Amino acid sequence: MPRAGLAAGSSKVDIAIDLGNPLLNRTVDGFLKIGAVGACRVAAEDAFDCLQSGSVSKRKLEQTLKKMCKEGAYWGAVAGVYVGMEYGVERVRGQYDWKNALIGGIASGALISAASDNKGNKIAQDAITGGAIATAVEFINYLT
Amino acid sequence: MPRAGLAAGSSKVDIAIDLGNPLLNRTVDGFLKIGAVGACRVAAEDAFDCLQSGSVSKRKLEQTLKKMCKEGAYWGAVAGVYVGMEYGVERVRGQYDWKNALIGGIASGALISAASDNKGNKIAQDAITGGAIATAVEFINYLT
Q1: What pLDDT was estimated at residue B5?
Q2: Partners of A8 in the beta sheet?
Q3: Which of A37, A48, A121 sits opposite B136 (nearest CB)?
C-alpha cells in the first residue's frame, strides 16, 4: 500500500492510499518514494551551492523548488514505470529471478526513451542500457 | 565467495576464488558480475548496430571487444567500490537499513568522481547524486 509520511521531531504524519490493485499500488508507491529521493537530491545540491556562495535569495529558493518538483516527478515516473513493469513480468512469468529485472528494464528503457521523443535506434539503445542497469542492480542486491 | 562461470548448452565451467576476507570477496564478486553485465551491454548494442547496417568487419569486431573490456572494467569498478563501501558501512554501524546504501553511495560517488580527475564542487555534487541513486535503488528493492 503506498504510504507517504512526514516526520518532524516526535510528531509524524502518515498517509496511506489503497488503490485496490497491487500493480497500481506498487507503481504509485514507487513514484512517491523515488520521487521524494529525487527531490531531496536537488534540495541537497542547491543547499550545498548556497553554502558555497554564501547567499540565499528568494529567486534562488523558487528556482530550487521548481527544480525539485520537476526532477522529483521525473525520478518518480522512471521508478513507477520500472516497478510496474517488473511486477507485471513477474505475474506473467510466474517466477521471481533476475530475468524479470532484465525484461522490466528493457521495457522501461524503451518506454521512457519513446516518451522522450527519441526515434528508432536510440530507443533500442536505451532499451539495452535500461536492461543492463536493471540487471546490474539486481545482481548488487544479491551481493549486499 | 566470488564465482565466475561460463555455460554453453549443458556444459558449465565454474570458477570460485576465495580471498579469505569477506570485504575483498564481495568487492571482487561485484567487479566480476557487474563487469560482465557492462560488457554484455556493449556486445548487445554493437550486435544491434551490425544488424542495422547489415555488415560485420574484423575492425568493427576488434573495436567492440576493446569497448567491452573498457566498459566492463568501468562498470565493475563502480560496482566493486559501492559493494565494498556498503559492506564496510554495515560492519561499522552494526545494522542493516537504507542508511547504509545512502552512506555507501555518497562515499562511492565522491571516490569515483575524485578518481576521474574532478575537482571541488563537482566531487560534492557527484557524492550527492551517488547517495541519491543508491537510496532510490534500495527503496526499489523493498517495493519489488
Answers
A1: 64
A2: A11
A3: A37
